[in-house]
Specification:
Elements (H helix, E strand, L loop, with lengths): L2 E4 L4 E4 L1 E7 L4 E7 L6 E9 L15
Antiparallel strand pairs: 1-2, 3-4, 4-5
Amino acid sequence: MAEGYCVKCKAKKEIANGVEEVMKNGRKAIKGKCPTCGTVMFKILGGKAASTPSNPGNPPAAA
């Protein structure tokens, strides 16, 4: 799974029980728990989540 930073342990650790989520702004992230202390860990992934375009096919007409 993904590796994240635990603020309680102050170390990089493997995220346990990680679940991929999409945040409000459309970016993907992984949320899980620290295997040592159980604190919630959250890692933001690069790029936007794949979504269907709002206007498929027809580009806006240039004036």
